[in-house]
Amino acid sequence: MIDVDAVTVDRGGVRVLEDLSLTVPDGEFLILAGANGAGKTTLVRTFNGLITPESGTVRVNGTPVETDPLAARRAVGMVFQHPRDQIVATTVAADVAFGPENLGLDRETIDERVDDALAAVGLADRRNARVDELSGGQRQRLAIAGALAMKPSHLVLDEPFTGLDAAARRSVRSRLEKLHDEGTSVVVVTHDSRSVLGLADRIVVLDDGTIAADAAATGGLAQTVALPENTFERGRPDDPE
Ligand SMILES: Nc1ncnc2c1ncn2[C@@H]1O[C@H](COP(=O)(O)OP(=O)(O)OP(=O)(O)O)[C@@H](O)[C@H]1O
């Protein structure tokens, strides 16, 4: 469980999150929506200590992130906005192995984790491919595999559909659905919730550093909560499945 309690964050002298509280239970698929600059990325970066709040506490599985940032980083897998920034090796398998290698695991366990993570994102057949041979969607899935190989209880993806064509979006979306079905908690940060709305248990909308809406993502969200006017302004409707 991720438990954000009364968190305030300033960035460059500006208040970006204001006394914000949010709990993400294990196994939940949460959409974190809101217009550009609402504070979504800042919020998720507090989940594993990449950003330390001015006040308030973030706990991951009961432990404050600042007490044990390494445990938080293992428990919360993070896939950033630009997957290219996360790719560290030349081949697909070596890239996914990087995280587990840093945990000091033995070779057999590392290979097992690499195989499992690549299978989970549908890249098992590209194990030995060079990363630069992959398409945009495959790179995004590789970044997800890298996070999964750390066996996180929560997977956080920041704008995972940016720059992907319709086929790649569908492919990433279906992988997220499968991971959620298998019990991983998934948090998707997006200003275009339509790409994942059908998969989510809940949607939280940030507006200017506070929670503007928090609702179950079922039964026609638009009818159940009043979303800020600009929530979807930059979004494109997803292609029909
Ligand atoms: N390092 C920083 N220095 C100064 N201001 C920052 C910094 N990081 C973020 N901000 C500001 O904090 C606000 C929230 O940024 P954040 O990236 O969390 O928003 P977001 O909702 O994720 O939006 P986006 O979709 O544009 O990334 C923005 O106004 C941004 O300009």
UniProtKB/TrEMBL annotation:
SMART domains: AAA (SM00382). Keywords: ATP-binding, Cell membrane, Membrane, Nucleotide-binding, Translocase, Transport. The keyword Isomerase does not apply. SUPFAM superfamilies: P-loop containing nucleoside triphosphate hydrolases. Its main location: membrane. Pfam families: ABC_tran (PF00005). InterPro entries: AAA+_ATPase (IPR003593), ABC_transporter-like_ATP-bd (IPR003439), ABC_transporter-like_CS (IPR017871), ABC_transpr_CbiO/EcfA_su (IPR015856), ECF_ABC_transporter_ATP-bd (IPR050095), P-loop_NTPase (IPR027417). One of its GO terms (cellular component) is ATP-binding cassette (ABC) transporter complex. Residues 2-233 form the ABC transporter domain. One of its GO terms (molecular function) is ATP hydrolysis activity. It is a peripheral membrane protein. It is found in: Cell membrane. The keyword Nucleotide-binding applies. Probably part of an ABC transporter complex. Responsible for energy coupling to the transport system. Belongs to the ABC transporter superfamily. This is Biotin transport system ATP-binding protein.
